[in-house]
Specification:
The chain is an alpha+beta fold and about 130 residues long. It has one helix and nine strands. The chain has one domain: Periplasmic metal-binding protein Tp34-type (Immunoglobulin-like), CATH 2.60.40. Strands 1, 2, 3, 4, 5, 6, 7, 8 and 9 form a nine-stranded antiparallel beta sheet that branches. Strand 3 and strand 4 form a beta hairpin. It starts with a helix and ends with a strand.
């Protein structure tokens, strides 16, 4: 009977360590100063500037492969609607043009990574 409390304590310690390791490997913090949203088990970080928008994609903390990826953005600022096409640009998907970037602007991204189902991601700029 004395081994039961010891076993329970070891099981609890193991589950806490596993939960902490999972939390550390799937952190949702921005790495590029943008807004991070999780969708389709991936992290999407949107970095919006007046002349360009970058979308960084992470799969379990690592940069996702963007070869063959496509995407589309729809930005909603008040009654104005702006659309843009995303294309791979090194470690991110990117669109260039003139974009509303005021706080409260809503952005809907549809992203298709090679071999994966399309992901719909919604952001609110801060």
């Amino acid at each position: 009977m004395k081994s039961l409390p010891l076993f329970a304590a070891l099981a609890l310690a193991s589950s806490v360590a596993t939960a902490q390791a999972h939390k550390d490997s799937h952190d949702h913090q921005p790495l590029h100063g943008g807004v991070v949203v999780e969708a389709s088990d991936m992290d999407f970080e949107l970095v919006a500037k007046a002349d360009s928008i970058a979308l960084y994609v992470r799969d379990h903390g690592k940069a996702a492969r963007l070869e063959g990826a496509t995407g589309k953005l729809t930005l909603l600022a008040g009654s104005a609607r702006t659309e843009a096409v995303l294309a791979p640009a090194g470690d991110r998907l990117e669109a260039r043009g003139s974009f509303p970037t005021a706080a409260g602007t809503k952005v809907v991204a549809t992203v298709q990574l090679a071999g994966k189902k399309p992901a719909n991601v919604r952001f609110a700029l801060k």
